[in-house]
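Figure-free illustration: sequence to structure, shown twice.
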Amino acid sequence: MGSSIKIHANPELLVWAREESGLTPEELAVKLHIPVDRFRQWENTGKNIPLGILKQVANFYKRQLAVFCLPTPPPKIKKPGDFRNLAKDQSGLSGEALLIVRRTSKYLKLAFELEGEEYWKTKYNWLNEADNLLTKKKNITDAEITGWLRNALGISLDQQKKFRSYEAAFKAWRNAVEKKLGIFVFQFPMPEGEMDGFSYAFEPPYAIVLNNTNNLPQRKIFTLFHELGHILKHQSGICFTDLYRENQLEMEYQCNDFAGKFLVPDNNVYPVDSVEELTKLSQTYKVSREVYLRRSFENELISKREFFNHLKTIREIAKTPKAKKEGFAVSPSVTSKSQRGEAFYNLVVDAAYNNRIDFSTATDVLNLKINSILNA
């Protein structure tokens, strides 16, 4: 039996893989139903680890078993800065979220290898234009910056108003960011309340990653542009985009301000006399009621008292349970494309068909069986 076979592993790799997973020795010991001292001994010596246990450890870390026998640990994955401003005892990321960070890094490395350095250098020429504008304007929230970005994305305010739904608006904005700016937009389920998303912009290509666990499309639209604000500032960061979070970092406030002003420019902000009117205006611009309410308050079109009264009402409405929609089966390929975005999905499928990568790599990064890719 596997449990009777003892394995010698590289102790440095054991520690490296655990730290990259975000788990502590105590948490691993609980999962493995063993004393923590025994697990610490394995990490110190790497000797006499039951094969069955090591397989479980590899599964918890989402790693291949062979990784524990490498001569030296690979470089640690670059992690975005944490802009959430949490209490010290709430800091850090869950194993699920760290896995998404690792996945993002892996996808971007593959995209870089497939297209090459010169392609991505050319694709990001727009960022040089943005840098030149920011050198003069100093602030991403300036109307000239948001206007320049709207032109770069090719979606006018009139077109924005004509989106038939929030879902259609999110899809259009996402596709524009991917096609016009070369920024991949991924969306994966992550623990609810841990983050709204993060920007990953260490070197081209860049990515914006959204948490799609119970997040409405209007919230994802706002988060998309919040994270784009960070990329304009050359920042990689993990974020909450709650407009009214206490003790919000200045950089988070500025990216929220940028997203709000981009989606609802100053000359399109009107006073709101009722929640019904607020709902109508927010639906027109395909933003949340909180976003439009904040824009009205920022422009001094409503009083502080009106602002907080409306805010209390719409947050109570948001808490009201909604009828669940009838579920229906979604094909694995649709799920894969929804999570990874059309740009990355199509890049990988085309590379597999043109023998630039093997189908094993394609099935791994797209989380699909080979038949799903062959029928794509």
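We now fold a second protein in the same way, so the two outputs can be compared directly.
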Amino acid sequence: MKLSKLNIWRGIAAGLMVWGPSIALAQETPALDSGDTAWMLTATALVLFMTIPGLSLFYAGMVRSKNALSVMMQCFAITCLMTVLWALYGYSLAFDDGGSMQKWIGGFGKLFMNGVNVDTLSGSIPESVFAIFQMTFAIITPALMVGAFAERMKFSAMLLFMGMWLTVVYAPVAHWVWGGGWLGELGVLDFAGGTVVHINAGIAGLVAAIVLGKRRGYPQTAMPPHSLVLTLVGAAMLWVGWFGFNAGSELAADGTAGMAMVVTQIATAGAALMWMFLEWVRHGKPSALGIASGAVGGLVAITPASGFVGPMGALIIGILAGLGCYLASVKLKRVLGYDDSLDVFGVHAIGGIIGAILTGVFVDAALGGSGLAEGVSIGAQVVKQFAGVIATIVYDVILTLILLKIIDALIGLRVTPDQETEGLDIVLHDERGYNW
């Protein structure tokens, strides 16, 4: 009887030795999570909603009525162009294994969405959902630049520039941070795109604004927004859509996504109030444009930090972003004399830089964050964040400038003075935003 029992236990042990690795492997095999998938489908739609109609209306309201349709047309066309280019090669360059070039750029294994099938997974969600979620980021990043050179760039030049910029600037930087590249390996934290999206777009927008030159009559001629109602509606859509932007970047419906939503709301409100009160003190009255601009600055600043910081860290980031973006958009632009039409640099580049650097501070668990990597101090993390910011700025400036000079030599960047005076709606599209 004892021998029989001994043989049984020996058999069980042998079975575990044989089947144990298979059981463990089965447990580690990625499995589709319907809850995560449902959330990511929603988040993807929210981020697309940010560009059309959110950003389109936000920008359209801030330009003169004769250019309102042209701005919306640019955002719409960019959405279409980036979608096609992302499917053809953008996704592969950003997220495929680059082999020997892995640290710098993705490979060609996913050209034409090769291998992205119904059953392929990225973590707990379909790879198709991950790919289109990332596509919405590739759409809004170049669209943000439209505000910097609004009212003066040729539509044809804009399309050519955006396509080239996605290829040689956005895709490589996205790979550096999110696709297994060198900034990710360095330990740079960018949860939802402070570096990849906002610093990238803000710096490129500034370069474009400087290369094209000032709008005809700026700054002597007043160029007030033609419809702040449209701008506020657009800002509200951006605010709502941003929950998909930030909370969706967790790629799962979990506690981190929930906290990302909380801190996004808090930082946005703090920045909006900060900008509003600064303007109130300076001019004696609070403005709708000011509170909307502050809200967007807060959304930008919390983007890199949203998965790493706690509520009070988010509030401080928001308040400092409201201050920094206000000073850059109102003071710095006036001192340096550049014509960034809709303050893309002041809001997105400055807000992104503030958020990126402060992420390295408020990620610390002692300050309510998710915690620093083992053996990394706040100072060391801030240095890493600063390195990511500088690398992005330098690369972006050089490549953007080269692209603009090439396009200017080929087809010209800017409309003629007479066309600019008449307005881009009728000159470029033979249509009007308003038939008054």
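Summary for the second example: Residues 1-6, 12-27 have pLDDT under 50 and may be disordered.
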